[in-house]
Amino acid sequence: MSAANEPTRADGCEPRPEPSGGGLPAILAVAGLAFRESARNRVLHALVAATLLACGSSYLFSYVSGGDGDPLRHRKVVLDLSLTAITVLGTLAVIFLGTNLIYQEVERRTIYSVLARPISRPGFLLGKYLGLAAVLGAALAAMSAGFLLLFALGGGTVTPSILLALAMIYVELLVVLGVALFLSVATHPIEGAVIAFVVAVTGHVTQNLNDLGRELTRPRPDFQPGAFEFALQKFLWVIYVLFPNLEFFNLKSETTYGLPIDPGRVGLSLVYAVVYVVIMLAASSLVFRRRIL
Fold it and tell me: Which of 63, 73, 111, 270 has its CA 20 to 30 A from that of 237?
């Protein structure tokens, strides 16, 4: 690219060359700072407390909906509601913290002192991601410990499938965090939070949308699909491809009803999560490197 086409800063000055490298120590230093900043966030504390409250309240809902007084049925309701609460409130924590990652740094102007050090912008983003991932791990551990304690005190048995379901919730949150990180460098926090919420909700129905698209274009004796149906099918397919399929990580049904969990599905889900997060980190780095600070 020629010098005439190089982006310039808002003050008209040529941008400083980006530091190269920085290595693992610099990335871990950024991760440590991100961890300490996010761990002190009161919104995160409130969401953790709300999750524990929801888990405790699930016992009340189980008896309201139980009807026949079957203890096993009560425990199934508690398990389902608690896992759902951990997923939903954990997702809200990811969206709130993730979409504000870069905006807060720019607003406080701390990003300039960090990027002045020998660390590249992709390294900075990776450090931020790792730091927030560690915070989410600690928060989810607190949520899970509180839920498991209440579940055990309520007469439930903590099984490996429950622990696996909690672990897959964490993997799901890491995928949503990748999306939130991308939105934090590409949009304003409010817009990013709305989009991230839509992505998180849609991510649980992408397979259904793809199936709906195929059904719309399936010829039937009383119906022949036209251009509109095929265009809608392509649109739904694009959503299916671009949006994360978060149902890959949903083991609540298997855990609640004692169904067998396919190890192959779990392994495929982990590979899918790694690939999707890497793509999001690469896209975030590409946008962030072109952004004028």
Answer: 270
The two three-digit tokens of residue 164, written as one number: 């696996």
Q: Give the tokens for residue 184.
A: 């934090």
- Rounded to 5 degrees, φ, ψ at 223 are -155, 135
pTM, rounded to two decimals: 0.84
C-beta of residue 169 within 8 angstroms of C-beta of residue 249: yes
Dihedrals phi, psi of 220, to nearest 5 degrees: -135, 160
Residue 104 or 235, more confident:
235
Q: Where are the beta strands (DSSP E) in 221-271?
A: none
Q: How far apart are CA 197 and CA 18, in angstroms?
A: 33
Instruction: Single out the residue of 76, 85, 90, 77 nearest to residue 54, CA to CA.
Output: 85
Report DSSP state, residue 258.
Answer: T
Give the DSSP per-residue string, 161-204. Answer: HHHHHHHHHHHHHHHHHHHHHHHHHHS-HHHHHHHHHHHHHHTT
Q: Is the dihedral of CA 91, 93, 94, 96 positive or negative?
A: positive
Structure tokens at 230: 């095929």
Token pair in block for residue 253: 């049904």
Residue with tokens 């671009």: 242
Q: How many CA atoms lie within 13 A of 253 on its CB side?
A: 5
CA–CA–CA angle 119, 122, 130 (5° rounding): 90
Average of per-residue pLDDT values in the chain? 83
